[in-house]
Amino acid sequence: MDLRTIVNGLSFQEKKVLIALQQLNGKAEATDLAKRVGFDQSTVMRAVLTLSEHGLVKSLEKKFSNTVLLPEGQEYARDGLPERRMLVALASCGSGSIDEIAAQAGLNEKQMHIALAWLKRKKWAEFRRQGDKTILIITESGKLAATEKSAEELILESLLSGPRDTSKLSPELNEVLQILVRRGLVRIDEKAERELELTELGKRVLEHGVEVIEEVSELTHDLLVSGRWREVKFRRYNVTAPGEPVYPGKIHPQQEIMDELREILLEMGFAEIKGRIVESEFYNFDILFQAQDHPAREVHDSLSLSRPGRTRLPPRPLLRRVAMAHERGVAGSTGWGYKFDPKISQRAVLCSQTTAATIRYLASRPKPPVKVFAIDRVYRHEKIDYKHLAEFYQAEGIVMDRGLTLRDMLGYLKLIVNKLGFEKIRFRPSMFPFTEPSVEADVYHQKRKEWIEILGAGIFRPEVINPLGIDHPVLAWGIGLTRLIAIRLELEDIRKIFCNDLKWISTRITSCWRSG
Q1: Which sequence spans correspond to the domains of the chain?
Q2: What residues contact 89, with CB distance under 8 A and at least 6 apart?
Q3: Which residues are bridge partners to 216 per DSSP?
Q4: pTM of the prediction?
């Protein structure tokens, strides 16, 4: 780009700043430059930014520490530090009780305690107990310190005349300064100034000649009506100049993945259902044949509520059949052998498993076929760390129809996992409270080179489906979705998903599940 093109591309403000910098011998602080051209500092810095992009000006940031005395520091700078005053009094007699030395030094109670702490820390005095009194005895280092001022005192005295830049202190003196800061005697204000300097290209442009003419950047109604648009100079615009990055609204990476899974399940013919945040213990536990004294129902796992503390009981016939399954069993089982308590069934909890949503749906539709899924947030009393949360997402699905077998369930799981982008899958026998037989599925993660457990599944037990009036097999599976999302997003810390880090969210590119 030739010099004339560069000059023509500069605005009125940019030209004025460039000329003013030349008049200040090619180098100036931003504040001085603003005074010179009569613009506010933000206008000057915007002009400097453009001039820097053209390579005409370079900007150097100078940082400095402005240290000022606080009221207590001013007092000590004039009268001496409490430990200094007490040391001088102690040096005059060699030893004495604390009260006597403090009185001789003219210290009040607060100053006395400060002085004693620093006398001990600096090893200027020994403390010995004699009867009911504590005696101070000056040490050799104390005698030496009494003859010369400490670094703290020299710094305080130097600040009496006004604030000072302490950014270039030696490491030793800076350590002393930090002690004064911690004592609340001084304050350090970190400041930064920008020094602007003409580059060689900037000097050449000025030598070439820069004509300052006020320009118009907008064609207004008044200019058109008055005809002045023929006389004014319009500002040239560089349409190729890069603009500010724009981060438009986008779906959260976690939501993108949940939507992807939802699309997969809908393609497979599943219908979506929704669960409840507040659930009864009946639908969260009892109807799933979990004993009322099961450890998972204690406060260390589920989260109970005080308001509402109770929920409505289900229809009486359903409650009676579930109670019978618990007390005496069904289909040849003996049940749990205890007295079922409806009051426990009424207790309100935060939903701890999405199975509560699917079992509610089954209870209202006991006739086949049924093929539904739920993606919902669940809540448990977990200790929060990098791989555990108190609230997280689960995905749950059930299929109920005539003649279904374990082979059918494994076929569904393999198809779901393949659509998630994982080619290798293996099944292991497992045990869950409300399914028999039960399996767990592991997938092979190509990038991590390891097998990862992603879901559990099984066929609902007779003790679960018989009280519902269901005569056909029900296949059920569940995914710990939040953990799988963390793996998909390559996060080591599961808490990152919920941290609302806008930079991470705005720059995150979530590829589809099928990429594996």
Answers
A1: 69-183, 255-515
A2: 101, 102, 104, 105
A3: 234
A4: 0.54
